[in-house]
Design goal:
This protein is mainly beta. A hairpin with a 6-residue loop joins strand 14 and strand 15. The chain is built from one helix and 15 strands; from the N terminus they run βββββββββββββββα. The chain starts with 18 loop residues before the first strand and ends with a helix. It folds into two domains: about 100 residues, Electron Transport, Fmn-binding Protein, Chain A (Pnp Oxidase, Chain A), CATH 2.30.110.10; about 120 residues, predicted glycosyltransferase like domains (Thrombin, subunit H, Beta Barrel).
């Protein structure tokens, strides 16, 4: 059986209300905006909400070419369309041409993105004892943790807490999970004044028990970070 290469609209399984990224193709400095799917007529048109920025509708002109991206949970779909109409009454929405060429990229669990996320390491015996650290990169399955405080050795289990900014909601979401330490490295750090030195511990960790809701949030964070850095 031949492997399917053409991606059909139905393959995206888009549901009314799904969030999409939208960018004006002709813009000098393309800016990622967020919109939601209102509805569609197959092989005819899409209806989207007009993106909002600072409480105001983003100015999009009729006839503009736009690029759109949507995350299915495990894959990123991208496609282009033309704005056929911008309607303000009785409701504000965009009427877009129906997408023809759709591309799909799988989001592997091993894909890592750079991060600078404060994290708290909680002592499972005494939860009042907390060590501060930083997630310097993160993936769907684990992260790299940097700290001046020793956390353990390879094979140990730690409890971590951190918050992720969900761009589409403009909100911080707290995540708590246990993690296993799989690697440990040490290096020498220098204070800003250059007059003192300290040990920097870097731990590679694997997440163990993130619940389904937080796993989805983490997937979206990795996806959004990939797209922002790609532009």
């Amino acid at each position: 059986m031949n492997k399917k290469t053409k991606i059909d609209f139905e393959d995206m399984n888009l549901q009314v209300g799904v969030r999409l990224q939208i960018m004006l193709k002709q813009a000098t400095a393309p800016t990622v905006q967020y919109t939601s799917l209102i509805g569609f007529v197959a092989n005819d048109y899409l209806l989207l909400q007009i993106p909002q920025q600072d409480g105001q509708p983003v100015q999009i002109q009729e006839g503009a070419d736009v690029a759109l991206r949507v995350f299915s949970g495990v894959s990123v779909f991208t496609f282009e369309a033309r704005v056929e109409a911008v309607l303000a009454s009785p409701r504000a929405f965009l009427l877009l041409s129906f997408p023809a060429n759709i591309q799909k990229v799988g989001l592997r669990k091993a894909v890592r993105v750079k991060a600078n996320i404060p994290v708290r390491i909680v002592n499972p015996v005494d939860r009042e004892v907390i060590k501060e650290a930083t997630l310097s990169d993160i993936s769907l399955s684990g992260a790299l943790v940097s700290t001046s405080n020793p956390l353990g050795v390879a094979g140990d289990t730690i409890q971590i807490e951190f918050s992720i900014l969900v761009q589409s909601q403009n909100a911080q979401v707290a995540i708590s999970t246990s993690a296993s330490i799989r690697s440990v490295q040490q290096a020498v750090g220098t204070a800003p004044d250059g007059g003192s030195f300290y040990t920097v511990y870097t731990y590679g960790i694997n997440f163990l028990d993130i619940d389904a809701a937080h796993q989805a949030i983490l997937q979206n964070y990795v996806y959004e970070t990939l797209l922002i850095h790609r532009n």
